[in-house]
Amino acid sequence: TDGAGVPTGTPLPDPPLVEAISEDPVLRNTKLIAEAWDCDGLNQVGAFPHYGGRWSEWNGKFRDVVRNFIKGTDGPWAGDFASAVCGSPNIYANSQPPENDWWGNNGGRQWRGGRGPSASINFVTAHDGFTLADVVSYNNKHNEANGEDNRDGEAHNNSWNCGEEGPSGKWEVNLPNQPDWSDTSRLVAFTLSDGKGGSLYVAFNTSHMPRLLRLPAWAGRVWQPLVDTSKVAPYDFLAADGVLSAADVAAARRSLAMWTTDHTYPVLPWSCIVLVSAPEDPASTNMIRSVPICGR
Hints:
CATH architecture of the largest domain: Sandwich
Shape: elongated
Strand content: 15-25%
Number of strands: 10
Order of helices and strands: HEEHHHEHEEEEEHHEE
Distance between the termini: 58 Å
CATH topology of the largest domain: Immunoglobulin-like
Number of domains: 2
Structural class: alpha/beta
Radius of gyration: 28 Å
Number of helices: 7
């Protein structure tokens, strides 16, 4: 520093203190972990002076990739997520730093590459920023209560409030006889009966989110799928009509018995379903998972 506490130097490519810690015989069997960034913007992730792999690093990029992928952010997150769960080889195995990595292209270049997954400390929450509950409860930070006018704390949280800002006691399960007619509702479901025991259950989901529906439960009867537009043809229409045999239809319905025997059914985004009420068959609980009924 200049004597008044103002930094005047640059990050050292071979910091003596880090080297001394790395080579200290007393610490030989101690795991050393670096939080390889600072408040002024220096980020050494992937190129922290590790002295032969003695140091692992908090992988903040893993956190950001996982959060963005899980909440469905547009972008290259599927490929980035696959790389992250494989140990971030693009960060720790690859010796070529990204163009925007100032440290990796300068003093930290000698520390790039040649390391495996153990170099990465994977995490999605830490001691600062949002908690895991906050990540799925808030779009923005709310630190108003501490008198700092919400200026403190990390604002870059890659979070999603799942439709309602803040804590909510609402469950994403739609119950019978509890319709939601609000302006934000994107689901309509109803039953049709012929008065002789035969009934249809129809639901339309025009939301980008899947919905788990609680079906009417009638003694001795079970709901069987007839139409589900989210499925791959010909399994979007389960009827023995020359395309599917009766055995194909029965197998497809048995594969969904884990839902229907519990009187529930998932309706995927932008799809509709039609279910038929039928006498309960104990054999319908046998799971057959080889039928390709899941849409892509």
